[in-house]
Design a protein that fits this description.
Distance between the termini: 61 Å
Order of helices and strands: HHHHHEHHEEHEEHEE
Strand order of the largest sheet: 2-4-5-7-6
Strand content: 5-15%
CATH architecture of the largest domain: 2-Layer Sandwich
Number of domains: 3
Number of strands: 7
CATH class of the largest domain: Alpha Beta
C-alpha cells in the first residue's frame, strides 16, 4: 500500500559525511605544523618582533575543520605562546611598547577565535535552513505531481458518467419521466462543474510547471465581454441578478483591441463574471464596464455583493484562497488564480477593490494593440 505523502522521507541535501581518521590526522598535522612554524619565529627573534598575529591561520583552520572546541583550544594555546614570549627566553628589560604590542596581539587572537566560531555557527544555521527549504520544495513538487496525476486520472470516470447521463436523457435505455429528466439534468450540471474544476486544476499545474503558452492575435475585448455575458445570462437569471455590459462614459459600442489569446482571455471574463454573479445578492446587478485608455484597455466587473474584507484583498488572487467574508458563495479559489496567470502572461495587471457603498470590483488592464 502506498504511503501517505505526509510520511515521505526526503533526504536533506549536502548532509555531512564522516571523515576518515587519516584525513583528520593530516588536517591536525597541518595545524600543528603551522603552530610550530609561528612558535619558532616567535621564540627565535627578539621580543619586540610580534609574530603572534600569524596564529590566526591555524585558529581559522581549526574552526573550519574541527569545530568549536578545537577553536577554543587553538586560541588558548596561541594566547599562551604569545604571552610566554614576553618572559622566555629571558631578556634584561621588557619595554612598555612590547607589552602593548603583545596585548593587542592577544586581543586580536581572541577576537579571531570568537568571530570565527560565530561565523561557523552562522554557516551551519544557513546550511540547515537551506537543506530544509530544499527538502520542503521537493516535498511540494511531489505533492503537486501527485495532485496533477490524480486530477488527470479523475477526468476519465467523470467523462464516462457524463456520457452515461446524456444517454439516459436521450432515453436510449428506455423512457424517462419529466421528474427523472430534472434529476438527470441536475446530475449532469454537477458532473460538468466537477469536470471544469479538474480542467482548471490541470491548467494551473501545467502553467506553473511549463508556463502559459499563448496563441497571440489581435483580439477585441468588447466581443469577448459580450459573448461571456450572453453565455451567462441563464446563470444570472437563475440567481435573480441583472447582468449588463456598458462602455464607460460613452453610450456607443466601442472596440478594445489587444494582442492576446482569445480563448484564454475568454476564460478570464467567464471566471470574473461567474465570481461576481455568485457573490451578488438576489436582485443585485453585475456590470461589465469597458474603458479604452491611451496605453491600456481596461475591463471592470462590478457587483453589488457584500464586498471583500480589507485584510483579504492582498490574497484574493492566491491559489486556493477563499477568504472569510460574508460574500454569498464560496468557490475553489482557483478561478481568480488562473485569471491572474493569464493576465500576467499577457503583460497586464489584474486587481480587486471594494466599491462604495457596497460591492466589489474586479478589474484588469492590457496593453493597447495599435490598429
Amino acid at each position: 500500500m502506498p504511503y501517505p505523502l505526509e510520511y515521505i522521507d526526503v533526504p536533506l541535501p549536502n548532509a555531512p559525511c564522516p571523515m576518515p581518521n587519516n584525513y583528520q590526522a593530516s588536517r591536525f598535522t597541518v595545524i600543528l605544523g603551522l603552530f610550530l612554524t609561528v612558535v619558532f619565529m616567535e621564540f627565535s627573534t627578539p621580543t619586540e618582533y610580534v609574530f603572534g598575529y600569524l596564529y590566526t591561520g591555524p585558529i581559522l583552520l581549526a574552526n573550519s575543520w574541527f569545530g568549536r572546541i578545537a577553536t577554543v583550544y587553538a586560541t588558548l594555546i596561541a594566547v599562551c605562546f604569545t604571552i610566554l614570549n614576553l618572559f622566555w627566553p629571558e631578556h634584561e628589560t621588557i619595554k612598555a611598547s612590547t607589552i602593548a604590542s603583545r596585548a593587542i596581539a592577544v586581543m586580536a587572537l581572541i577576537v579571531t577565535g570568537i568571530l570565527s566560531d560565530r561565523l561557523r555557527r552562522s554557516q551551519d544555521a544557513i546550511a540547515i535552513a537551506r537543506a530544509k527549504l530544499e527538502s520542503q520544495a521537493e516535498l511540494v513538487k511531489v505533492r503537486e505531481d501527485f495532485a496533477s496525476t490524480i486530477t488527470h486520472d479523475l477526468k476519465t470516470p467523470l467523462l464516462g458518467a457524463i456520457e452515461t447521463i446524456k444517454a439516459f436523457q436521450q432515453e436510449k435505455f428506455g423512457s424517462v419521466s419529466s421528474t427523472q429528466q430534472q434529476v438527470l439534468a441536475t446530475m449532469a450540471r454537477s458532473h460538468q462543474t466537477s469536470l471544469q474544476l479538474l480542467e482548471t486544476l490541470l491548467d494551473i499545474y501545467r502553467n506553473d510547471t511549463e508556463g502559459l503558452k499563448l496563441n497571440l492575435a489581435p483580439v477585441d475585448l468588447t466581443n469577448l465581454a459580450e459573448d461571456a455575458a450572453s453565455s451567462l445570462i441563464e446563470l444570472a437569471a437563475n440567481r435573480r441578478v441583472h447582468l449588463a455590459v456598458s462602455y464607460g462614459d460613452s453610450d456607443w459600442r466601442r472596440a478594445l483591441w489587444v494582442q492576446g489569446d482569445a480563448l484564454q482571455l475568454q476564460r478570464v471574463f467567464n471566471n470574473l463574471l461567474v465570481n461576481a454573479i455568485n457573490h451578488s445578492r438576489r436582485g443585485g446587478r453585475v456590470e461589465v464596464v469597458l474603458e479604452p485608455q491611451t496605453n491600456y484597455q481596461v475591463v471592470k466587473i462590478l457587483d453589488t455583493g457584500a464586498g471583500i474584507e480589507t485584510a483579504e484583498l492582498p490574497h484574493i488572487f492566491e491559489r486556493f484562497y477563499q477568504g472569510h467574508s460574508d460574500r454569498q458563495a464560496k468557490g475553489s479559489g482557483l478561478g481568480l488564480y488562473l485569471s491572474r496567470q493569464i493576465i500576467t502572461a499577457h503583460g497586464g495587471i489584474i486587481w480587486a477593490e471594494n466599491r462604495v457603498p457596497t460591492g466589489a470590483m474586479f478589474a484588469f488592464k492590457l496593453p493597447v494593440y495599435p490598429i
